[in-house]
Amino acid sequence: MLLAALVAGLWGFNFVVIDWGMAGIPPLLFVAVRFVVVSLAAFVVPRPLAGWRTVVGVGLFMSLGQFALLYTSIAWGLQPGVAALLLQAQAVLTIVVAALALRERPTRAQAAGVIVGTLGLGVVALGRGGDAPAVAVVLCLLSALSWAIGNVISRHAGVVAPARRWGALSLTVWSSLVVPVPALALSALVEGPDAIAAGLAAFGWQAALSTLYTAGLCTLVGYAIFNGLLARNRSASVVPWVLLAPVVAMTSAALLLGQIPNTWETVGGLVLVAGVFIANARARVPGAAAGGGQMLPPSSGPASLERRSSSPERSR
User: Fold this and answer.
1) Nearest-5° Cα angle at 276, 275 to 279
2) What is the structure's pLDDT at 69?
3) pLDDT digit string, tens, across residues 228-270
């Protein structure tokens, strides 16, 4: 329980660290730097048992799409705590995308979770009160959608790790190799060469610490601990702890950045998290629809359903 809470804390605080480290640095450039660091672990972590098509697809949607949109939404004014809440929509969106793309029929609990989660998103969107630009909210929701598409790609491919102890970390690390070059190209196209030069000049100790935290602690250490917990415990005992991440993000943003969400954002976010919990509460069986056990937060890096394939239940 303490280890699960530690991982949720690392992943939740990550949103504040991103906002803090990105000061003066273009978001797309910051994404490229983060995944250069993550990809270095490919020298140690073995390649997942998946084709390059799957690895590239996961890298484009779970890593590049998710984090490029997330970082940009925060840079454009979305509070880190609210971003953490909105990104939980990836769990319910995964169910929807899997139903459309893979014809996987959701369970009643999953359908109810999608309805409740959508209601929560509507409350957040309608009750922004001008605190965050509408475009930033839309970008964050698109980030959640990109993550959901990546989940379904991994689920459809049935990706497994070369050894159970590596779990989803192998796919996370190897798919990160896809990110740096496209992210840098997007940065040059969208943000411009001058912004890149200025961002590199402004890349000091603050940005370096932020990158080490997001790439090292959140992605590598966080996944190592979380995969170990999943290998030794039932998913139903571990995965719900991830719902602490938005709570940690909102609390740390309020205490350290003075960013306090309004009443509508708080209520809508809680309803969204309740929808995620409902969608996952009864989907802990082998062969459950995609998204049933998917609640890993964006702060950790790609959170594929691959762990279903490498779990003891899936193996049986």
Assistant:
1) 85
2) 96
3) 776 677 766 676 677 778 888 888 888 888 887 777 777 877 8
Using N-to-C axis directions, what is the helix angle for 80-87 and 263-281, rounded to 10°?
Answer: 30
Query: Interhelix angle for 244-257 vs 263-281, to 10°?
Result: 160
pLDDT at 311: 41
Give the pLDDT score at 251: 85
Q: 94: which 2 tokens?
A: 């995964």
What are the residue boundaries of the structural domains of the chain, listed by start?
A: 2-315
Q: Mapped to the 3 state alphabet, what secondary structure does the chain carry?
A: CHHHHHHHHHHHHHHHHHHHHCCCCCHHHHHHHHHHHHHHHHHCCCCCECCHHHHHHHHHHHHHHHHHHHHHHHHCCCCHHHHHHHHCHHHHHHHHHHHHHCCCCCCHHHHHHHHHHHHHHHHHHHCCCCCCCHHHHHHHHHHHHHHHHHHHHHHHHCCECCCHHHCCHHHHHHHHHHCHHHHHHHHHHHHCHHHHHHHHHCCCHHHHHHHHHHHHHHHHHHHHHHHHHHHHCCHHHHHHHHHHHHHHHHHHHHHHHCCCCCHHHHHHHHHHHHHHHHHHHCCCCCCCCCCCCCCCCHHHCCCCCHHHHHCHHHHC
Buried-exposed string 177-197: b where 16+ CB fall within 10 A, e elsewhere:
bbbbebbbebbeeebeeebbe
CB 53 within 8 A of CB 116: no
Residue carrying structure tokens 């990158």? 211
